[in-house]
Amino acid sequence: MAKSVFKIIMFFIVGLIGGIFADQILWPYFIERPLFFKYRIDNPPVEVTEVNEIYIRENEALEEAIDKVKDSVAGIQIRTKQSFLKESGWIITHDGLLVSLCNSFPDPLQILGITVYVDGEEVEAELVEEKDSIVSMKIEKDRLTTNPVLDIEKVNLGERVFLVKPLFQEDKVVKMVNLGIVRGKDKNIIYTNIIEDETAIGGILFDIEGYILGIANGIDSYGRLSALSISEIRNSVGF
Q: Is 125:152 a contact under the CB 8 Å cutoff?
């Protein structure tokens, strides 16, 4: 009985040693021979994902777009006999022409003065014209930041869009950003799924490349923001 157990153990040891020898010495040697080379098994290819890199690049592109756009968005304070109204404006020329929505402005006869907050300064503005749904103003300041625009025909359904709006905080104006996608459009209006409140009216809608798409002009019953397209603003102002 003991001899049988001893034989089994020896067979096991010899088999183990033989397996190690074959795996570590014989197989690597023969697999490099021409006859066996076609049976060689290499390590499987490693798939390298670029998701993280794409994500980082997208964030960098967005940061660059925000930097381009935020300085062309101005806070506007309108003084009337009854109150101070706070609105948003968009600078469209380097020498100080800016626009806002007519429905944000009181009757011109009630306006005592308009102050524009831009580049960390307070500059008095002169009302130039009200046409269709756009009011234009002029400030005496040059070398202002402007941005390229994109007509509504080139805006794609489902593309990511962003909103920047000015908010008045005590004696300064800060910029806030929100994001979403284009869920619809028609001749003059771009509809988004960006959820906002009424303070967003007058804010600027732009894409990830920093192109201006329109001015926020409405919030629906679900809180979703819409914007007057740049095409309609062009028709009103003529730039």
A: no
